Amino acid sequence: MRVSYSPGYYAPIPHEHIFPMRKFEGLYRYVLEQDLISDSDIIAPSMVDMANLLSVHTPRYANGIMTGNLESKELRRLGLPWSRKLAIRSRLAVQGTINAALMALQDGIAGNLAGGTHHAMADHGEGFCVFNDVAVAIKVLQQTMWARKILVIDCDVHQGNGTAEILKENENVFTFSIHGEKNYPFKKPPSSLDIGMPDGTLDSHYLDTLGDALDDIFNDFEPDLVFYLGGIDPLESDHFGRLSLTLNGLYNRDRIVIKKVISEDIPLVLLLSGGYGPTLKDTVQAHALMYKAALELWK
Question: Which key words tag this protein in UniProt (predicted)?
């Protein structure tokens, strides 16, 4: 299975910051150590072309990220301190998702060891999301006619507000978000299908709800490509999640999604999205479950 990764996915932020910036490098090392991915299947992206970035983001915002010319309130909303390396890593990660989509169309399944930054809006970033990689990738794929009908399955515990807002007028995109109903963002632009789960939701209810929703979606929508945002923040141990999934529940969630897409014979793109475990090791190992499930099912 080919995946996108670059050492440039890391950008320095204060050590005490809640965002686990080291998880990208940690996951890269872990999937190699566990033989989930081979070194020859790691594909390093370049920075996304500005023209492709501007197919989604406004020139003022995109240029502001690249130059650091942003107001303090914009940086507070973004939640990350600006640096030139942050701007570069954000463009690398977007191209990583575009590359993963193209590799999935060729191979059947591929991933990005980053991505799923679903809170970024056209004219601003928020929730630690600088650019909306999924929206940019979809625009590029549709403009170049690599894919026409695209499904986004977003299982991050936080609703994919940026993706829903940016793609709301795109009739060939179906956005599905299953998330914590009372969690961030508090204003949730409607996805094609939103399912809000109550605080404390356990494995069985979550998995049953997800499986039923996927059956309904695939009965009505026939995509050329699927993006899966496998955020690990529904875990009970997550700093921000408020749901109560176990590691086994998270692993079965990934299996349900991946098995369904594979059974429909549709190319699949795997993306990390969010997760804030008790330790970096916990975060990395939870993210790796998606690749473990994909490897087992794809074989």
Answer: Hydrolase
The count of other CB atoms within 10 Å of the CB of residue 85 is: 13
What predicted TM-score, i.e. pTM, was given to this entire model? 0.97
185: pLDDT confidence band, cut at 50, 70 and 90? very high
Which pLDDT score is estimated for 299?
74
Region 244-249 average pLDDT: 98
Domain membership flag for residue 147 = yes
- Looking at residue 24, which CATH number applies to its domain? 3.40.800.20
Domain annotation covers residue 11: no
Grouping H, G, I as helix, E, B as strand and the rest as coil, residue 211 is helix
Residue 111 confidence class, pLDDT cut points 50, 70, 90? very high
The total of structural domains in the chain comes to: 1
DSSP state at residue 34: T
Query: Does some domain include residue 266?
Result: yes
Can you tell me whether residue 37 is helix, strand or coil?
Answer: coil
Instruction: Name the CA radius of gyration of the chain, rounded.
Output: 17
As a whole number of angstroms, the distance between CA 140 and CA 117 comes to 17
* Residues 271, 212: Cα–Cα separation, whole Å: 22
- Count other C-beta atoms under 10 Å from residue 240's C-beta: 15
Q: Name the residue among 217, 216, 253 with its Cα closest to residue 234.
A: 253
Task: Return the beta strands (E) in 101-236 as ranges.
Answer: 109-112, 150-154, 173-180, 193-197, 225-229
pLDDT average, residue stretch 273-298: 97
Rounded Cα–Cα distance for residues 269 and 246 (Å): 24
Q: Which parts of 41-137 are beta strand (E)?
A: 42-43, 109-112
Distant-in-sequence, close-in-space partners of 33: CB < 8 Å, separation ≥ 6: none
pLDDT value at residue 209: 98
pLDDT tens-place string over residues 68-99: 999 999 999 999 999 999 999 999 999 999 99
Decide if 14 is inside a domain: no
